Amino acid sequence: MLAGKVIKATRSQYLVRSDQDTITCTVRGKLVGAPKDDTTSVRVGDNVLIESVSRNEGVIREILPRKSKLSRAVEGKAYKEHIIATNIDQMVIIMSVKKPAFKSGLLDRYLVIAEKNMLRSIICLNKIDLAAKKQFEKYASSYRKLNYPFYFVSAHQGEGLDDVKMILKDAVSVLVGHSGVGKSSIIQEIEPSLNLKIVEISAKTHKGKHTTSFVQLFPLSFGGYVIDTPGIRELGLWDIYRADLKKYFVEFRNFEDQCQFNDCNHIEEPACGIKQAVSQGFIFEERYRNYVNIYRDLRAAPYELIRKQ
Question: Quick one: pLDDT at residue 304?
Fold first, then answer.
């Protein structure tokens, strides 16, 4: 039995990277360690044990325990967990200043997902060469105060790429963001040997076009792995309900003891410590509005989708 890590998963085959080689694997019969309710159990990032069939072929026999995962709910499907990737150390959220435009509401939804999954979050604002940096300084300052690292990046001009490289070094990182924000471009610039296909931008919608539906994990020559998530335009807020949403806005923790009611949701309740903190400038008002918008959407359904905004 060989130990390895799943770096790509398609409908019927898996690429597993071991110390010796990259092996094409299948699954036959019952998997040891597979979740009982997961019919397609193997995921990108899984550490597995494989039985060798030939030099370049094998069978996955066991999934080793997962330390973390990133999940989503899929639009139009029954409310069921879909695991995107596993054994992740951090989420790198890629936004862009233009094409597609920066939306703080989308950023905060990604941060909620990261907090829910107990993943470290890093924010990279790409394409900064297309806009004045001062327009976004208020966001950088606000999120840095919450201990979310915030970097200005230009994959086109190379700005901030050394910072990104240090972020990714020796960690397993998942890159998330709408198609077209520059996830693959950033990876390509810091690891040119990968030869990734870059997403085209629609001239009509200024949004990215899908290139593939497969999540893939890439080993980095300077240490670590990066998981690109092409084709995932929406990440559903899996297993997040309106009563729990406030837990994932970290700045609320300093002011909740000032609320009149212990179960205050910080929306319409009187004598709310969070709303008072917003009015006094202690909580970024735009981020609070994003909280309210997410909360109101969650009231209408058991889960929320990050929509094309």
Answer: 45
DSSP state of 210: P
CB atoms inside a 10 Å sphere around CB 81: 15
For the chain, what are the domain ranges?
A: 2-63, 93-236, 241-305
- The CATH T-level fold of domain 241-305 is Ribonucleotide Reductase Protein R1; domain 1 (1.10.40)
Q: How far apart are CA 131 and CA 150, in angstroms?
A: 16
Residue closest to 123 by CA, chosen among 108, 138, 101:
108
Which residues of the chain carry a pLDDT beneath 70? 33-40, 74-79, 196-213, 230-235, 299-309
Residues 6+ apart with CB under 8 A from 63: 31, 32, 33, 34, 41, 42, 46, 47, 48
CATH for the 2-63 domain, from 3.40.50.1100, 2.40.50.140, 2.102.10.10, 3.90.1150.10: 2.40.50.140
What is the per-residue pLDDT across 20-35, written as a single tens digit (0 to 9) for each?
Answer: 789 999 998 777 766 6
Strand partners, 172: 225
Look up the pTM and report it: 0.85
Q: How many CA atoms lie within 13 A of 6 on its CB side?
A: 32
